[in-house]
Design a protein that fits this description.
The protein is mainly alpha-helical. 58% of the residues lie in helices and 5% in strands. The chain is globular and about 55 Å long.
Length: 262
């Protein structure tokens, strides 16, 4: 049985100024996405040039933060918002929804695509392989905060989280998600997108992979206390939101390759 490391969620404190690890992990994700995006702009089929990558990152960052926060409020914790509306602004305390962030990023890509005259799907295929790095970094932030832990377990790597309401060893599900949504996800998408693919194919594979990985981890992740299981004593909100992603991804890839074959 392992103990969750006692990591102060505040990485740097200078007087009243406090910089949290959770915020730094997001910064790492954005910077890594910007660097990788600049590499991808050198491909002949890239929809934007190297100079435009900084502007695109700004739009995507707004989409992630605004969409992710509002998504968490709507999908997971609307009661907390009603009790304390200012809680919406305290992003450093955690509480971001990937599915909300995805909607925010989609809107940001549509908006930026219109601005520069680039089609939405070409931009989506370009951005998709950049996302797993940020997802992985965010899961490390969850682990440092000691949030989103897994169910009780007797596996040798089970971990006791001090924030949990008991002293039971639990699955370190944040690290599972880091491995799947960060490392494995990045390898798959980066490899798949290294060559020209039919329009919508990369975006479709993104939806399938994330949906499958998230659906799998939800079986060992403790559901949000305020929601619990939605049905069957195992179905979680994360699975409900991920299943349509898988279906949408299959549809996109089917359309992409059917059009390519015509």
């Amino acid at each position: 049985m392992l103990q969750h490391p006692q990591i102060d969620p505040v990485a740097i404190a200078i007087g009243p100024l406090k910089i949290h690890w959770y915020g730094l992990t997001y910064l790492v994700g954005f910077l890594a996405g910007w660097w990788l995006g600049r590499l991808r702009t050198r491909k002949p089929w890239a929809p934007i040039n190297e100079e435009q990558m900084g502007d695109l990152l700004f739009y995507l960052a707004l989409g992630v933060i605004i969409g992710g926060r509002f998504g968490y409020v709507i999908f997971y914790n609307f009661d907390s918002f009603l009790a304390d509306p200012l809680w919406l602004l305290r992003v450093w305390e955690g509480g971001m929804s990937f599915h909300g962030g995805l909607l925010g990023v989609m809107f940001a890509m549509w908006w930026y695509g219109r601005k520069v005259g680039t089609g939405f799907w070409r931009l989506a295929d370009f951005v998709a392989p950049l996302v797993p790095v940020g997802l992985g970094a965010g899961r490390i932030g969850n682990f440092i905060n000691g949030e989103l832990w897994g169910k009780p377990t007797d596996v040798p790597w089970g971990m006791v989280f001090r924030q949990a309401p008991d002293a039971l060893a639990r699955h370190p599900s944040q690290l599972y998600q880091f491995a799947l949504e960060g490392v494995v996800f990045f390898i798959i998408l980066w490899w798949f997108s290294s060559k020209p693919r039919p329009k919508m194919a990369v975006a479709g594979l993104f939806l399938i992979c994330y949906g499958v990985f998230r659906f799998m981890v939800e079986f060992v992740r403790q559901p949000d206390a305020q929601l619990g299981y939605l049905a069957f004593d195992w179905l979680t909100m994360g699975q409900v939101l991920s299943f349509p992603m898988i279906l949408a991804g299959v549809v996109l890839m089917s359309i992409a390759y059917r059009r390519n074959a015509e």
